């Protein structure tokens, strides 16, 4: 079964070009030039990944991302204008897994789609060699079902958030740098190291877990070194 990708961008030439590249890679593409059309696809179709432009004529990419995260955990990649750092942070905070700045190379976007898809499928099929379930101080993660609970309360995590928490729990008691987290998640794809990306995801994880920044119980910051989960 081919993977289904949603592309939402009102710049028709960009959207059509990206769709062409992804179809050449064997993906099934749902192409929308407005947010309203995208909402219909999100509600009706089985999707494996969404590419959302932030600036749309009707509903913003942020609103679409929020709508997706109400019921789905598949990866979301946001497309932002050059230099709009706030858009990147906002997208990640709302549950996006990655972002790309326009203009971009279509092949780089394809590479990022493949990386996100591999990680999403890995954590939803349990093909990792490691044990499929980790339990740390009331926190339980299952990489076969992509389920995470805290004191039996379900946490709705994005694939990237799950990946970060899984790595930290696997290495409980050890400090993992932001750079290493970045590499372990995205490997050697065409990514530029950006510590701020990891920082935003960590902050979002703490919010979902009800963990304080000043005195966190679970994800602790080791200043100048990285992050750790004590076990």
Structure description:
The chain is an alpha/beta fold and 231 residues long. It is 43% helix and 20% strand. The protein has two domains: 4-123, Response regulator (Rossmann fold, 3-Layer(aba) Sandwich); 126-229, Arc Repressor Mutant, subunit A (Orthogonal Bundle), CATH 1.10.10. It has helices spanning 12-24, 35-44, 61-71, 85-93, 106-125, 159-170, 178-186, 195-209, and strands spanning 4-8, 28-32, 49-53, 76-80, 98-101, 133-136, 139-142, 147-150, 153-154, 219-222, 226-229.
What labels describe this entry?
single chain, 231 residues, alpha/beta, Rossmann fold, Arc Repressor Mutant, subunit A, 5-stranded parallel sheet, 4-stranded antiparallel sheet, 8 helices, 11 strands
Quick one: CATH superfamily of the largest domain? Response regulator
Order of helices and strands: EHEHEHEHEHEEEEHHHEE
Question: Approximately what portion of the residues adopt beta-strand conformation?
Answer: 15-25%
Main CATH class of the largest domain: Alpha Beta
Annotated CATH topology of the largest domain? Rossmann fold
The chain-level mean pLDDT equals 85
Helix-strand makeup class = alpha/beta
Largest sheet: 5 strands, parallel
Report how far the terminal alpha carbons are from each other: 40 Å
Describe the secondary structure blueprint for this structure.
Elements: E1 4-8, H1 12-24, E2 28-32, H2 35-44, E3 49-53, H3 61-71, E4 76-80, H4 85-93, E5 98-101, H5 106-125, E6 133-136, E7 139-142, E8 147-150, E9 153-154, H6 159-170, H7 178-186, H8 195-209, E10 219-222, E11 226-229
Parallel strand pairs: 1-2, 1-3, 3-4, 4-5
Antiparallel strand pairs: 6-7, 7-8, 8-9, 10-11
Helix pairs in contact: 1-5, 2-3, 6-8
């Amino acid at each position: 079964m081919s993977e289904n990708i949603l592309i939402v961008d009102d710049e028709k030439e960009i959207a059509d070009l990206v769709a062409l590249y992804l179809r050449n890679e064997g993906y099934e593409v749902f192409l929308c030039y407005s947010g309203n059309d995208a909402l219909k696809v999100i509600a009706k179709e089985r999707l494996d990944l969404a590419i959302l432009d932030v600036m749309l004529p009707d509903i913003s990419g942020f609103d679409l991302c929020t709508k997706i995260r109400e019921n789905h955990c598949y990866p979301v990649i946001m497309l932002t204008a050059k230099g709009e750092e706030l858009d990147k942070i906002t997208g990640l905070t709302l549950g996006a897994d990655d972002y790309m700045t326009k203009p971009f190379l279509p092949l780089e976007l394809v590479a990022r789609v493949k990386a996100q898809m591999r990680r999403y499928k890995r954590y939803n099929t349990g093909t990792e060699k490691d044990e499929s379930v980790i339990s740390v101080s009331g926190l339980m993660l299952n990489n076969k079902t992509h389920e995470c609970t805290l004191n039996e309360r379900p946490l709705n995590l994005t694939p990237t958030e799950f990946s970060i928490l899984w790595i930290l729990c696997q290495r409980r008691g050890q400090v993992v740098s932001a750079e290493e987290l970045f590499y372990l998640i995205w490997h050697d794809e065409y990514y530029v190291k950006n510590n701020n990306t990891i920082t935003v995801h960590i902050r979002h994880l703490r919010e979902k877990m009800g963990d304080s920044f000043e005195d966190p119980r679970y994800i602790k910051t080791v200043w100048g070194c990285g992050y750790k989960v004590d076990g």
